Amino acid sequence: METFTPLYDTYYNLYFGPAHCGSGNFGVKLRVRGEKIIDARADPGYLHRGFEKLMEYRVPIQNAVLSDRLCVLEPLSWNLVHAEAVEEIMGIEIPERASYIRVIMAELTRIQSHLIWFAAFSMGTGFDAGFKLAIGYRDYILDIFERITGARVYPAGYICPGGVRRDIPENISRKILDTLDYREEEMIELFHDLLYNPIIIERTRGVGVLKLKDAVRLGATGPVLRACGLKADVRKDDPYEVYGEFDFEIPTGRKGDALSRLKVGVEEMKESVNIVKQALEKMPPGDYIHPNLKRINLWKKMPPGESYARIEAARGEACCYMVSDGHPQPYRVKFRGPSFLHMIPVLEFLLKGTEVADVPAIYWSLNPCPADMDR
Amino acid sequence: MPYVMRKPTESIIETPSGEGDDIMGEKEPLKKLIRAIWVFNWFNSCGFTELLPVVASRWDMERFGMIPVGSPRHADVLIIAGYQTFKSIKRAQRIYEQMPDPKVVLALGSCTMTGGMYWDSYNTVKRLDDYLPVTMYVPGCPPRPEAIFEAVGKLIEMIDPKFLEKKR
Amino acid sequence: MEENELLEKILANFTVDARVQRKRRVWLSVDKDNLLGICNFVKQLGFDHLSAISVTDWLNEGKFELTYHVWSYTHKILLTIKTKIPRDTPLIPSVFPIWGESAQIHEREMHEMFGVKFGGNPDLSPLFLEDWEGPPPFRKDFDTRKYVCEKYYREEDERERVYFLSKM
């Protein structure tokens, strides 16, 4: 077979930009020679609102409503981080029933966030059926959220400092168990089978390999780090709420490529279903909010101090550092989003030396959320 | 835009009881649907999560002939699904200029009307009307898929059936 | 290793102000000149995950306070190191040689938002804001509500008049 040898060496810039079927709200500038990528540079900032400055003008109960718009794909997790940071400064303990409700909401958010991950990955790699099925199954969880909090997507600060805003309705545990048994397990089986599809295996095996030393140096956390082989999870290492009382495992991968990350995601969904079932059995009766904070006009002062709250969101480690100096409003709030590290250093590192056609598979396997990168 | 806007004196969607223009509840097939509306793939910010069920299986928009497209030259509707920052409004304006006539801008959410939840942010666009000519606003934070469909239904009605004959 | 053992090891080699807030949280306050020495020492003890770098603007004292939050996967303790630098000439050596690219990207964001210069950081170009002419936005003397009301809203419009009335 005859092949051509090029006369000139051509380098050109390719813009994998914000209005693209294979990427949302985020651009990557690639320097390409033929089909090989020489250099990649991330282009963030399309969604920057200055959250940390906005929160300095509002009291904690208003901040709870604002905090669920930090990352639109998992709003309840960010509610939880903010609430934990405020409670640690105020020095209050929440009742146990509120803690169990928070765990159930956080795990259901993790399941629906992983479904969006699979849907977006399928859309980016051209697998249309996976996209439509995953979003379809996610709607059953949004119906549960609507029964409990009142809205499908933004729960208006349901997890607020002091507990939760209202108690769960009476027969909701029956509905949650029915949904999980009949719909979600069917869906998890479906994704388990889909991952053994030869086309997806060919597109993701050996693509975007990240070794463990590089992962820790670049700041990766969450499923991206666990797929490299390290068993690190904030729910087990630094337990918050009542996670110490549940019996669950941490799935890890071995090779650090895109296929291991997807497999870790499917296994995590199974463990989340397990945790929700245990929590529904063990939930004690009691109060759903700290009695002093039940009436909103009692929230007048935060004592001076500082705190650092960490949780395991669906994408990785999400943290909130809060400083207060005695006024009702916080003095400084800083959020650390998992996608900030995944989309800028890790992506630029992984894209060097690969082909242009592999860019969507690598990009979506890191589970990016541009909203919590820009804040 | 003289060819697109007209007062809907007669509905092109005939319903059996003749009450209103609700395409969701009726099971009559859509008669005289002039052309299918194609949506440009600019899914931005918060309204994105409620646009996904509209595109995918639960509130399927493909049964009305709408699909998301990749090139601005194929598209009829630009959906601005929430707040825009100064960086992204520049790209949206370029996309709008490249779309062929007749074209429509649909603005979702309360952030496009008066600034919304981020009214005191230094980086967001406060009134979308200053930057792009908006045809229809859909309120909500974010608006539900049923509200988006009602807006699309009103849009379909606004299309003048004589447009295609005039161009010949 | 327990938190008190860690405190003893650090206090044996450096003079710092240290306290244990609760289980798994240790806070240190150091001088600007000792910062790199302590960071190297702590990295060798096993603290290799840099969680966040943050800056707090104390306007009354005229200082910026930098905080470095590091976590160790083997000892499972979160250590926070705080220093203060003067506000008029905010210059500090970077920790990029110690913790790699995760430090570099956090410092780039803090340079854009507060104006702190990190010596030795390979790339300090703007990250989020495009064509921003104004002071670094997160400083305490930049009031975003006043900025936004002057630039974008009109007091004559009755829907927007309420924005002019809200004070902190």
Folded structure, characterized:
The longest helix of chain A is centred in the first third of the chain and has 30 residues. In chain A, the strands form three sheets. Chain A has a three-stranded antiparallel β-sheet with strand order 1-2-3. In chain A, strands 6-7-8 form a three-stranded antiparallel β-sheet, covered by helices on one side. Chain A has a single domain, classed as Cytochrome-c3 Hydrogenase, chain B (Orthogonal Bundle). With 375 residues, chain A is of the alpha+beta class. With 168 residues, chain B is α/β, with parallel strands linked by helices. Chain B has a single domain, classed as Rossmann fold, CATH 3.40.50.12280. In chain B, strands 3-4-5 form a three-stranded parallel β-sheet. The longest helix of chain B is centred in the middle third of the chain and has 13 residues. Chain B is globular, with a radius of gyration of 16 Å. The two termini of chain B are 18 Å apart. The N terminus of chain B is likely disordered. Chain C has 168 residues and is an alpha/beta fold. Chain C folds into two domains: 132 residues, Beta Polymerase, domain 2 (2-Layer Sandwich); 31 residues, no CATH class. In chain C, the strands form two sheets. Chain C has a five-stranded mixed β-sheet, covered by helices on one side. In chain C, a hairpin with a 6-residue loop joins β4 and β5. At the A-B interface, α5 of A face α1 and α2 of B.
How far apart the termini of chain B lie comes to 18 Å
* H-E string of chain B: EHEEHEHEHH
CATH topology of the largest domain in chain C, which one? Beta Polymerase, domain 2
The number of E-state strands of chain B comes to 5
Task: Break the fold down into its secondary structure elements and pairings.
The complex is a heterotrimer of chains A (375), B (168) and C (168).
Chain A: E1 12-16, E2 27-33, E3 36-43, H1 51-54, H2 60-66, H3 75-90, H4 96-125, H5 128-149, E4 159-160, E5 163-164, H6 172-194, H7 198-204, H8 212-218, H9 223-226, H10 234-237, H11 258-282, E6 305-312, E7 317-324, E8 332-336, H12 338-350, H13 359-365, H14 370-374
Helix pairs in contact in A: 2-3, 3-4, 4-5, 4-11, 4-13, 5-6, 6-11
Chain B: E1 39-40, H1 48-55, E2 68-69, E3 77-80, H2 86-98, E4 104-108, H3 111-114, E5 136-138, H4 145-157, H5 163-167
Parallel strand pairs in B: 1-2, 3-4, 4-5
Chain C: H1 3-13, E1 17-22, E2 25-29, H2 35-45, E3 49-58, E4 63-71, E5 78-86, E6 91-93, H3 96-99, H4 101-114, E7 117-119, H5 144-151, H6 161-165
Parallel strand pairs in C: 2-5, 6-7
Antiparallel strand pairs in C: 1-2, 3-4, 4-5
